[in-house]
Every structure is written in structure tokens, then in C-alpha cells.
Amino acid sequence: MESIPEDWQRGLVIVAHPDDIEYGAAAAVARWTDQGKDIRYVLVTSGEAGIEGLHPRHCGPLRETEERRSAAAVGVTKVEFLGYPDGRIEHGPDLRRDLARVIRLHRPEMIVTMNHRETWGPGFLNSADHRAVGLAVLDAVADAANEWIFAELTEPPWTGVRWVAVNVLLGLTHAVDVTATVERAVESLCEHSAYLEALSDEPVLDQAARQIEMSTGPRPGFDAERAVGFELYVFGG
Ligand SMILES: [Zn+2]
């Protein structure tokens, strides 16, 4: 198992929902911001359908606030929400165009996104939003680089994406040593306190610590006490 390349400066994390980054990938983000890298977050929805009993009108703003706090806990200050409907994101030209636009705006060398496959492992369905966003992010790298596919975009094409790291549990090809940053990943997930309190009666800190423990275990063939795994896609750059 190889390390994720770290010879880059600008990274963009694109996911469907507030909390998607915090269930593991944030430990890698903390390591990278400690190295002085510029990391920004783009959330396709505001997660407004995520809390039972709380109307989306109130839930969306609450979850945006929690996401901004989570980001700050790992050194990320730029967080953007695209306003797609939570639970009903569709893969297609509209989503690809909007993601191509944000890639052109932020000009990342490294993009991090969520698992786009149908399952997390045998018998564990991945959500429709995660499938749509992950695949559209991969597609949007080429869209951002091409001046003609979405000719209506006014931002100049960006051809500098070198990698997309897809956060997966199975089928990983690369990993990041997060031994030094797991505690900050726990703090980052704890910022989703309203969400976690609605999920379970277990104290927020206990839930967060348990989740991060599960998502940052040692990886076979990778020399680190704690690691986050990715499937790495390589682009021209
Ligand atoms: Zn999600």
C-alpha cells in the first residue's frame, strides 16, 4: 500500500453532505493543513433532510454552521454549499457543470471525494447522493479542463488536477498516515453535535471517537498506527 502523494499545495474536498468529510477523511485534511496546504470544502447539499423531526428549513442552516465549525477544527476556512436537494442529487450534466465550475474556481491539484460505488462492502448500500456526487466529481475533472463541453462557463479551463482521492473502506489503493491527527478528526466530527445527538443517545464524544476509531484503523501493508484509505485516480495534471 502506497502513501497518497503530498507534493501539492491546493486541495479541494467535494462531498454530498455535511459530516461526509468528518467520518474519516478529516484526519487526512488535518495532516495536510498542518503541512501548510490550502484545502477548501465544497458541499453539494446542506444536509437539510438529515435530522428526523427537524424541518429542512431549520436543519439546513444548522448543518451548514456545524460543517463550518468542523472545517475550522482541521484548519479549513473556505466552505461553500451548492444548494442541491439533500437526498435527490442526480448525476448528469447540471451537476457536472457546477462541479467543473468549482474546480475551475479553486484550481486544485488534489481533489478528495466520497465513495461513488454502489456499496461500501457486500450488503451495505451506498447512498444515492454519494454515488451521484463521487462519479460526477471524477467526470468533472475532464469537464473543467475542456473549453467546449460546458462552453457557458466563464471561468477559464483548469487542467491542473493531478489526482482524485476517493475515500473508500474497501478497494483502497493508497493511504494517509493520520496517527498524529486522529484526535483533531474526533474534534471535527464532534462539531456535528445536533446531528449526532439526533442519531443516538450515546454521548457525542463517544460516538465520534468510536466512528473515527473505525475509519482510521491500520491498513495492511501500510506502516502507520492509524491510517485513512483511498482509491487514487491519476490524471494528466
Ligand atoms: Zn453523506
Structure description:
There is one protein chain. The protein has 237 residues and is an alpha/beta fold. It has a single domain, classed as LmbE-like (Rossmann fold, 3-Layer(aba) Sandwich). Helices cover 37% and strands 21% of the residues. The strands form 2 sheets. An 8-stranded mixed sheet has the order 1-9-10-8-5-2-3-4, with helices on both faces. Strands 6-7 form a two-stranded antiparallel ribbon. Helix 1 (25-34) crosses helix 5 (182-190), helix 2 (56-73) runs antiparallel to helix 5 and helix 3 packs across helix 4. The protein starts with a strand and ends with a strand. Zinc ion (ZN) binds at residues 16-17, 20, 127, 130. One of its GO terms (molecular function) is hydrolase activity, acting on carbon-nitrogen (but not peptide) bonds, in linear amides. Keywords: Zinc. One of its GO terms (biological process) is glycoside metabolic process.
Report the mean per-residue pLDDT as an integer: 96
Q: Which ligands occur here?
A: zinc ion
In terms of structural class, how would the helical and strand content be classed? Answer: alpha/beta
Please identify the oligomeric state.
single chain
Task: Give a brief outline of the structure.
With 237 residues, the chain is of the alpha/beta class.
Spell out the blueprint of helices and strands.
Elements: E1 2-3, E2 10-15, H1 25-34, E3 38-45, H2 56-73, E4 79-84, H3 93-106, E5 110-114, E6 119-121, E7 124-125, H4 128-145, E8 163-167, E9 174-177, H5 182-190, H6 193-199, H7 204-215, E10 227-234
Parallel strand pairs: 1-9, 2-3, 2-5, 3-4, 5-8
Antiparallel strand pairs: 6-7, 8-10, 9-10
Helix pairs in contact: 1-5, 2-5, 3-4, 5-7
